[in-house]
Amino acid sequence: MKKLTRRSFLGNSTFLSFAGMLGALPLMGSMHKKPKGDFVHHVYFWLNNPDSEEDKAKLIEGLNTLKAIKEIRLARIGVPASTNRDVIERGYAVSWLLFFDNLEQQEVYQKHPIHLKFVENYSHLWSKVIVYDSVDM
């Protein structure tokens, strides 16, 4: 077995560290790349009958039909979490979080027949809707 000197150990360690960093450079560069034009559409629904689990289930059923719209990149249905701080709004019944590649795809979604049918069939369930639209910076 070859005896390892301090000098050769340090030299090998430095080389391996440098080589490892070179391999990680593409990954580090991609961490700073901006996603192309993300558009976020977040909708909060307050029900006419806030205590009705049946109405909530019906609304969630309707939201699930919207997932068929191909312009949606990612869709999530949520309910208020159990967190409790002064800044948290927990009065809504259901939230609908959507990600699109750009504003144009979100506009297609708004006019899509499935979306229009959803509003027609389920709008009687809610008393209030708040929408937060945002774009990636």
TrEMBL record:
It comes from the Bacteria. InterPro entries: Dabb, Dimeric_a/b-barrel. SMART domains: Dabb (SM00886). SUPFAM superfamilies: Dimeric alpha+beta barrel. Coiled coil: none annotated. Residues 39-134 form the Stress-response A/B barrel domain. It holds the Pfam family Dabb. This is Dabb family protein. It comes from Pontibacter anaerobius. The lineage of its organism: Bacteria, Pseudomonadati, Bacteroidota, Cytophagia, Cytophagales.
